[in-house]
Design goal:
The chain is mainly beta. It is built from two helices and 37 strands.
Length: 496
């Protein structure tokens, strides 16, 4: 078998591995016209990882699973979310996993399913969805912590495993307790390096090199154990040497509450950070460029009336390999807002996140907004309620129309959809629909209809004892579909 044949087989195998679906059709008369336009098909398998929610005995956590109805899926399939507990030696020798009862098992696409747990012993979870449950599968983990460090509302979208993550906005300051949660869903160990970058560059640490995450397990790594330096603003780089993991930073503050810091989108020249709450009392921008060149960025606030330059913070200079931070104060001034970062001249890849504070004095709470990808084809936020949910959408370039669908409730009701126009350069807090006759929580799915790209986030709020608890999740494309080229067999390649 020659090298060309091996390459053809390897390419077909790789396509099947990525999409779960590959077809070679019967050849036409002469084997000509060997490639057709790519078909957009639903993915057939999705994996999600949820970090261990809290170490506090005063924590109450809910999980909400939702799959939007997607055309073209098969009629069967399944999904479940269960503990990522490491296999026992006996289980491994028999090639089996622990048969823990799933935290939740969805019944049908289009209807949310919920589960809950309490206390500080809840494990990290691994989820797998197949068939009709796979495209756009979304799981939200929401935790209320009544008191102590990080008290308030903490929320995170369970994410797919990957090999690299950037987290600008972490900290080793005296009031902060930040953990990087690493979850390994696979049957072999993963090896991970954690690098920390402060205001003067990389922090010295050998402890963060070669961290082993055992199969089907989760490892919370306390940042303060990786360095002796106390720095207010850090960028965390998680690089996976072998295997793959899910990663998220849990940022807990003794005075300002806390939340999950999700990874920034991959380093790029222009960034959008959507959905700053209109009643934010303090906003801090943290940025980092991993390359060898400095970055100079224009800073713009997208408001309901258009783009505004924050007074005194028109630009941000980010030195190569160093974390830069700037306090923007209460820049939204009672209106919905998003931050847009663009290069002043030459484009240099950057990652960024916002730390947002609501409330005053001892009644303050914190959440984070990382830079995110556009909504793309479709994005979904689970675990919504009519009173505690705000959906923010920004069109940084051209005017766009979007359709927002409220699913059936977890305890009944029917879906409702509405279409909205987002003017160019503006951010709008949408009065999102709620399900007709719905009870329980519901999902919101946003789909662009026309116009330019849009970016979005969802804010959940829950005030407890006067503390304005809140959490923000960005809404990037759910990657529920994949382009699969239609190919014909061409046996002539075997003769070359």
């Amino acid at each position: 078998m020659n090298r060309t044949t091996l390459s053809l087989i390897a390419g077909t195998a790789a396509l099947a591995a990525v999409t779960g679906f590959a077809v070679l059709t019967t050849p036409d008369a002469a084997g000509t016209d060997t490639a057709e336009a790519a078909a957009v098909l639903p993915v057939e398998r999705t994996s999600l990882l949820c970090p261990a929610p809290s170490l506090s005995d005063l924590a109450d956590t809910s999980y909400t699973s939702f799959t939007p109805v997607t055309k073209g899926t098969e009629s069967d399939g399944k999904a479940e979310l269960q503990s990522a507990a490491e296999q026992s030696a006996d289980d491994r020798s028999e090639g089996k996993k622990k048969a823990d009862k799933p935290v939740l098992t969805p019944k049908e696409p289009g209807t949310p399913v919920t589960g809950d747990t309490s206390g500080g012993d809840a494990p990290a979870l691994v989820g797998t969805a197949e068939g009709k449950f796979a495209p756009g599968w979304t799981v939200q983990e929401t935790t209320e912590v009544a008191a102590g460090s990080g008290r308030g509302l903490q929320g995170v979208n369970c994410t797919a495993p990957d090999t690299e993550f950037w987290f600008p906005g972490a900290s080793t300051a005296a009031d902060r307790t930040d953990y990087v949660h690493l979850t390994n869903p696979d049957d072999s160990a993963a090896v991970v390096d954690i690098e920390l970058y402060g205001k003067d560059g990389a922090l010295e640490s050998t402890v963060g090199e070669g961290i082993t995450v055992q199969p089907h397990s989760s490892e919370p790594v306390l940042l303060s154990t990786l360095t002796d330096e106390k720095q207010e603003n850090l960028t965390v780089h998680v690089n996976v040497r072998s295997g793959r993991v899910g990663a998220a930073v849990q940022a807990l503050d003794d005075k300002l509450g806390g939340d999950w810091l999700a990874a920034s989108t991959d380093p790029t020249g222009s960034l959008v950070l959507p959905g700053i709450p209109k009643d934010a009392t303090a906003v801090r921008l943290v940025a980092f460029t991993p390359g060898d060149s400095d970055a100079d960025l224009k800073v713009r606030l997208s408001s309901p009336s258009g783009q505004i330059t924050p007074a005194g913070n028109e630009t941000l200079h980010v030195k190569a390999g160093m974390t830069s931070a700037v306090d923007l104060g209460d820049l939204t001034r009672g209106e919905a807002g998003s931050l847009i970062l663009t290069p002043t001249d030459r484009s240099v890849p950057v990652v960024a996140a916002l730390r947002v504070v609501r409330g005053k004095g001892e009644k303050q709470e914190t959440a984070f907004i990382p830079a995110t990808r556009p909504v793309g084809t479709r994005a979904t936020a689970a675990d919504n309620s009519a009173k505690g949910t705000t959906l923010a959408v920004v069109a940084p370039g051209r005017t766009a129309q979007v359709k927002v669908t409220a699913s059936a409730g977890s305890d009944g009701g029917t879906a409702v959809s509405k279409t909205y126009t987002i003017k160019a350069g503006t951010t709008q807090n949408i009065e999102a629909p709620a399900p007709s006759g719905g009870k329980g929580t519901y999902a919101l799915t946003i789909e662009p209809v026309s116009g330019g790209p849009v970016y979005a986030s969802r804010t959940l709020t829950a005030t407890e004892d006067g503390v304005p608890g809140f959490t923000i999740q960005t809404l990037p494309d759910d990657r529920g579909t994949v382009a699969v080229p239609e190919a014909d067999q061409d046996l002539s390649v075997l003769q070359k």
